[in-house]
Amino acid sequence: MSGETINIKGADGSFSGYLARPEGAGKAPGIVVIQEIFGVNKVMRDLCDWLAGEGYVALCPDLFWRIEPGIDITDQTEAEWKKAFDLFGKFDVDKGVGDIAATIKTLRPMTSGKVGAVGYCLGGQLAYLTACHTDADASVGYYGVNIQNRLADAKGIKAPLMLHIAGKDEFVPKEAQEEVVKGLHDNPLVTIHRYPDMDHAFARPGGAHYDKANADEANDRTLKLFARHLG
To answer: Ranges for the Dienelactone hydrolase domain (predicted)?
Structure first.
């Protein structure tokens, strides 16, 4: 397993991505890893490496490239949080979805043909929109923000989507959670798992709200979905 930085050609420019491949010969399925508001940082690179260890070609694109390429910050200082929220405020979600579509197009020839997507926080919303607007073969979103504002997009879902919702998410109020559950309840392609006592980013190792038991459960569910639909 090895990681490298590659170039991804988008509709209106090129940007970088962190690519991790599984060991051994032969082609494997692919997964686009969609960043949080901290850029393509160690947490995201570690996720790519983890997925490569599980047998996937994992690629995490730099979605903040239009604002500032190469963002790599943590959740450990107030200054970094301020920077992250500033980036989040300037970020164009729909252009980000276009960049994810370009990333899928770049990744697919490196794989056995099937490509999924998994995203966290901002990336959780983007994973949902990836299911709505791209040809990803399966998508998973962890504690996605603002999904309740984009429920009309759900009509575009054509492949399996799994959402992990934190019951005590400080960035997703209860009312918003219920809107998402109600809005997607009748869609047979959507599976929602709820973690009643968890706060935002419960699956981010090293984060203030990390909970290993719930993170392991969510990750197991994610891997099983990918095994079913990307294998």
So the answer is: 15-229
Which residues are paired to 120 by β-bridges? 142
169 is catalytic: yes
Q: What are the tens digits of pLDDT across the range 136-182?
A: 999 999 999 999 999 999 999 999 999 999 999 999 999 999 999 99
186 is catalytic: no
Of 137, 199, 200, 209, the catalytic one is: 200
Taking Cα atoms as reference points, which of 151, 156, 99, 105 lies closest to residue 125? 151
Q: Which listed CATH number (3.40.50.1820, 2.60.40.1930, 3.40.50.300, 3.30.365.10) goes with 2-230? A: 3.40.50.1820
Q: How is residue 127 written in tokens?
A: 């994973």
The pTM of the full predicted model, rounded to 2 decimals, is 0.97
Alpha-helical regions (H) of the chain: 42-53, 78-90, 93-107, 122-133, 174-184, 212-230
Given 169, 199, 209, 211, the catalytic residue:
169
